[in-house]
Design goal:
- The strands form three sheets. Strands 6, 8, 10, 12, 13 and 14 form a six-stranded antiparallel sheet that branches.
- The N and C termini lie far apart (239 Å).
- By secondary structure, the chain is an alpha+beta fold.
- It has two domains: 224 residues, no CATH class; 129 residues, Sandwich (Immunoglobulin-like).
- The protein is built from eight helices and 16 strands.
- Helix 5 packs antiparallel against helix 6.
- 39% of the residues lie in helices and 26% in strands.
Length: 465
Amino acid sequence: MHDANHTSTRPKRRTLSFMLLALLSVVFVLLGACNASNDDDGAEVSAPADFDVPAAAADDSGERLARPEPEEAAMEEAAEDAPATVQLTSGDNGLAVPTALTPADLGRDIIYTAEIAVQADDVTAASREAVAIVQGLGGIVFSQTTRTEPLPRAAITFKVLPDNFSTALERLAGVGKLVDQSISSDDVTEIIVDLRSRIITAEASVERLRNFLQQATDLEDVAELERELLDRETTLEQLRGQLRTLQTQVDLATITLTITQSPTVLPDTGIWVTAWVSEDADDPCLGVQNITVEPDAKVYLCLEVENTGTSALTDVEVSTRNLRLNLDNFQTIQGSFNSIEANELMAAVLTLPIEEGRLAGRVATRGLPIELEVTATPAAFDGTALDEVWGESVVWVQVDTDDALPGFGDSVSDGASGVVAVFSVILIVVGVLLPFLPIIAVIVALIWWIRRRSHKKKEEQTSVG
């Protein structure tokens, strides 16, 4: 009896098992049907009459394919998922904080960037050294900007392989004194994965639209399909461009190096002094450096002082070595004695009268040099006074003397001048002796009387003998 009951329950168990298997099969079939329905296109526009195809394709989810946002928007969307940016700042020569950003094969897409600021005595030489370092590591110069005045400065952007990122940073920091360093990394793996997925979806959508367009016969459907195809092809190219940009940034790390002039190096200073002399009062600075003039002429001395350095010249002073000239009478026609900026010119004019062949009290008939010396104090960009600079220049002035034989007119003129001179002397003598005429007359009369009396005595003696 017991065996009969046991035997009767076996078919019931087998039936239950078959029912469970059938139920599971139905569930899997339904799930597969749902997935298949997701792969099918939705029907938004009626298809042509000869086949059942939607005129405007949709994406795999049954909705229209949304256009991707620009690269900046995609970056902002993944910013929350990306690792935090690493910032390192150093004020010493060399890497103050060792770079722990050496790329490892972790299957992540990371963008490495760095900014370095150094100071060097020679900005140009440091720039050449930095370029040689990066090229030696297989990197390239992406951009370069160099300025020499007023403050030397160079800004260079390098592209290097991520494997050489740390080595390049360490070597570039050695081209001068490191004053600032900033290093960052940005994980864009999610952004790239998202872009690739959207590109695949967009490519599939474009391909379906092309197939629909080939099968379309109605003109309105063709026009709408072409517009939709153009939009989706544009979207696809934008996605591809964003992916290329990100992939390039991942493949090559970016280093921006800024080199400035070391403050311990004094800026260039210089002065150039030139003097001219002329008889033309309108533009004396177009004169010469050797001039011959009449005994009673006027000459105009032009002084030009050029600042050939990169620092302003202050307290410009002029002096002469061999003449006593009133240099305060210099009249500036360009610039000022107070300050001369870099690469600028100061010009001033001094009027010098020639009186009877003399210049400043000295005879100039044989030529007289005018030696001018100019001193100035350069000022650094921060106002600090630098070592004094000086320059000098010399011009010659000679008074003309007339050595030719006199003509008839000159002889008559000279004779008349001689007569006038003699008559003038006589008048002067008469004028001097006139107050003494009575005394002179008395003296003369007394001498005459004495000589006459003496003469009579001699005659009387002779007659007596």
